[in-house]
Amino acid sequence: MSPKSIKRPAAEYYLSIRQPYAWAIVSGIKDVENRSWLTNIRGRIFIHAGKNKDGVDDGMDDLRGKGVRKLPKEQDLVFGAIIGSVEIVDCVEKHGSKWFAKGKFGLLLEKPRKLKVPVSMKANAKMQRVPERVLKKIQSLKNSRLRKAND
Fold it and tell me: How many CB atoms are located within 10 Å of the residue 55 CB?
């Protein structure tokens, strides 16, 4: 059962995700993000690539195991920054995606966009509001026009 949707202002929130999964989401490869918590937030949110580099090799192996063939080199991944955005269209307890983890809540993701220039930011693990100063920085870098994942 999905919680009732609440449409929030565009990209008001961010979700911090470890690399290489943040890259996979904004690249349009990963369509579900698993969490231990339920959310009623729907609409576009920013994706923050966590600063922790531990587990990147394991993440790359996981992506390869799920059929992803074109992977970036670790030195090309961005850490500790907002790297793009995606729309949350639902939060479910069951899903057929290869990315869905049983026993978790799956955030169903669509319409990924990459920022032209990543914006550094300290982040928390839970979904949070984007600080106003970071939103202003994104706009000042002319990132407001996000590139489609395949661009």
Answer: 14
SS3 content of the chain, % helix, strand, coil (to 5): 20, 35, 45
Q: Give the predicted TM-score (pTM) of the model.
A: 0.84
What top-level class would CATH report for the domain 6-148? mainly beta
Long-range contacts at 128-132 (CB < 8 A, ≥ 24 apart) = 128/13, 128/14, 129/12, 129/13, 129/14, 130/11, 130/12, 130/13, 130/14, 130/46, 130/82
Instruction: Read off the tokens for 84.
Output: 């793009």
pLDDT digits (tens, 9 = 90+) for 63-90: 999 999 999 999 999 999 999 999 999 9
DSSP 100: -
Q: What is the DSSP letter of 30?
A: -
Q: Where are the alpha helices (DSSP H) in 39-149?
A: 56-65, 132-140
pLDDT digits (tens, 9 = 90+) for 1-46: 444 554 444 568 999 999 999 999 999 999 999 999 999 899 999 9
Structure tokens at 61: 């192996």
